[in-house]
Amino acid sequence: MLFNSLDFAIFFPVIFVLYWLVTSNLTLRNILILAASYVFYGWWDWRFLFLIAISTLVDFYVGKQIYNTENATKRKQLLFVSLFVNLGFLVYFKYTNFFIETFVDSFRLFGRELEVSTLNIILPVGISFYTFQTLSYTIDIYRKQLKPTNDLLAFGAFVSFFPQLVAGPIERASHLLPQFYKTYKFNYKLVKSGLLLMAFGLFKKMVIADRAALYVNEVYNNVDDYGGVGYLYATVLFAFQIYCDFSAYSDIAIGLGRTMGFDLMKNFDSPYISKSLTEFWRRWHISLSTWFRDYLYIPLGGSKKGKYRTYANIFIVFVVSGFWHGAAMTFIIWGAIHGVILMIEKGSFKIRKRVFKKLGLQKNNFSNHLFFSLIIFTIVCFAWVFFRANSLNDSYQIIHGLFNDINLGEIFKKETYLVGFKPNEFRVVSIAILLLFIFEHFHRKLNVVKMLNNEATIFRWSCYLTIVLSIVVFGIYGDRNIQEFIYFQF
């Protein structure tokens, strides 16, 4: 079920009313959440509900056994069971065909053709997200950082919690699971805040991301028909598309949880104003970045085993991150690019500090901030080419066009920037992106929402209605079809 669908527009009010009718009874409330979550996920394909159910049961019982066992060998064996089941599902559904294709291609390099066909496997929506969420539970118990729950119902609701089930934020049991043991009283301000965040998320998704997708899809799906300027526009627009699409899902999930009294972690923090790639990854997909930090980077040794081992650990984490995003070499290269730049940043820190000091670039003023932000944005966009391209050949062609085929005379031609767009759609996307940056800039410093609450009622509600009307006019009626969230495929 999509947040931006008519189905969800009916589903949410029904669940919202039922939830607040039964919320004083913890058992009934958690039954409702579990049932609603399974309906929400099963609306896409009910057959894959068994994956969530098996992961839930395995990790619930394995977690209890690990906690009650002092024998180190047995604890490792039990942890292996959890890893094998969860990662086994993930590897089979997401990576089987990739391994088959890689195996065949490796023989082709030596002039041998293998008659091996890929399997007809459907990738379950959001499997990477809920797999990581439930895995963190058993790993934390194994590390003796968390006590297991005895409440299977609450644990099942935690694993399948529908607001963030299929695209995050990836929650830790230590933060989210205890919230299923609490009763909540209806709080008008909290519900209103959640609804506003959901509306803001829908605005980013339907007005910006889905509009930008029209141009991006046209160019990236037909690379032979376009040149360097088209690639440039499409790549920059994709940067905003994926940010607005993914952060929109997180906003809606957090807002939806908030209307029910739940607190979900912040997942994005204005990443495109980052002055370094290290800062970018502290602001982008925070729940995944911290997951890889805690469950891969630190276990590999982190930064405690010498600088060369640190560089290797950074590179490994980002290559794995790329592979997590998709079973294709383009995603692995995307991760490797980020890994290499981060290694360079870390290795050249002292040199850069001295050079920047001499050039006067260390001052925390607007011009310096803008300068470094534009550099990081350019690097991120370069890597996005591999993330979005349909194949390695397409990505190489786009990169070649960006460096060798930029005709400045084409930049302001309508036939260049209106590809896939109607004139009004181009204006809407441009204005909406500008307003988004202005809002995020001021919101970080002044908290625009609190300021808005202090304004006159007519002004405040005019702002709310403007957002809603924009979603209706440019999102619902302006769209050619309902666009899935990009991260559903991961």
From TrEMBL:
It is found in: Cell membrane. Keywords: Acyltransferase, Cell membrane, Membrane, Transferase, Transmembrane, Transmembrane helix. It holds the Pfam family MBOAT. It comes from the Bacteria. It is a multi-pass membrane protein. The chain crosses the membrane at residues 6-22, 79-100, 120-140, 152-170, 190-207, 331-349, 370-387, 426-446, 458-477. PANTHER family: ACYLTRANSFERASE, PROTEIN-CYSTEINE N-PALMITOYLTRANSFERASE RASP. Belongs to the membrane-bound acyltransferase family. This is MBOAT family O-acyltransferase. It comes from Psychroserpens luteus.
